[in-house]
Amino acid sequence: MTATLQAPTTAPELRRRHVAAVVACHFTAAFAALGLPPYLPQLLPALGDPHATWAGALYVVPTAATALSAPLWGRLADRYGRKRLLLRAQLGLAVAFLLTSQVQAVTALAATLALQGLLGGTFAATGAYLAAGLSGPRLAKALTAAQASARAALAVAPTAAGLLATHVDVRGMYAIAALGPLVAAGLTLALPEPRPATTTAAPADPLSGSGPAPSIRLLCVLEAAFVLATVVTFPYLLPVVQAAWPTAGPALAGALFALPHVCYLLAAPLVMPRLDPIRGLTAAFALVALGAAAHPAAVTWASPPLLVTGRLLLGAGLTCGLVALAKLTARAAAAHPPGRLFGTVEAWSKGGAVAAGLSASILAGLSGPAAPALFGAVIAALSVSFILRSSR
């Protein structure tokens, strides 16, 4: 892979308690943002859409809006301060949630969901803040922890929201959800503002976050491809489970959905010190290709063991891929302004997620619920070939 060796950036390092607070803030914001979208179909009939026809389109609105706004917010973070822009993202998300709790029409809901993306962007803001105060291996570990907080929220939030839904309607849930980013903003106020980094020479460590820095363009392509290959398997997993394992109940289906994310939470700390980012990312795409391909095979043969194997392989690929991308991002942060870097990468990541959602919807309609997973396997296999050619 073509790369120019860059001297790592030595920033005023944040302490462990600061990193823990930032990760906790990200979990709090992500918990609210990820837990409520699955319940949009319950809200739409009250807004004049009795069959929840717009649920699929509305689901991707915040993601698409984040893809459009993230680069701008990143550049503003470099100019006006990463702490200020992290606070802006948290408060913006809270305002958007409060507005969503008051909607009376589908168009108003679409507008407030767009505001969640335009005013939010907490992951990019979190990454920019961490990169301004950490470097090398410590930054890679902090980014992995932030990603773990998002995976934990993804695994837990829908279930928690489901329990809340038995007592409060969906609009009331959005009002309560606004407390999450508000609490995060309160915690962020107590954090220091990292100063601009100064450049010093340091030896490269191929297993850490230091080493040859990838270009932003290459990092964005890898990020988007990984998100596309993995996320495209998510939307139609429940019909896949029903076809491959007819006796599986809702609880088991939910456990299978969460399984790759649980694998990441358990394995990422073990993988972090040992994984070479380029080899690890190559292995990650290969594992994702195998895991995704197992989904349609499990449907064809009605094989629960094959489905479980596919979910475990996907979890292994998710672990290697996210850790490898965190290390590559830490390397890139040594050579680029943090806000610009994380804003641009986040835009490509969200673009990959939008493409995954649209592709899944189209392919499932044409060829059945297992088709999106097969598409993800193809994307992952092509990515393996791309990395191998680029690294020669």
TrEMBL record:
Transmembrane spans: 19-40, 52-73, 85-103, 109-131, 218-238, 250-271, 283-302, 370-388
Superkingdom, natural source: Bacteria
GO annotations of cellular component type: plasma membrane
GO molecular function: transmembrane transporter activity
Top-level taxonomy: Bacteria, Bacillati, Actinomycetota, Actinomycetes, Micromonosporales
SUPFAM superfamilies registered for this protein in UniProt: MFS general substrate transporter
Signal peptide location: none
Organism: Micromonospora olivasterospora
Localization of this protein: Cell membrane
Ranges where the Major facilitator superfamily (MFS) profile domain occurs: 18-392
InterPro entries with a match to the protein in the record: MFS, MFS_dom, MFS_trans_sf
One Pfam match: MFS_1
Primary location recorded for the protein, binned into one broad class: membrane
Assigned keywords, A-Z: Membrane, Transmembrane, Transmembrane helix
Membrane disposition: Multi-pass membrane protein
Protein name (database record): Putative MFS family arabinose efflux permease
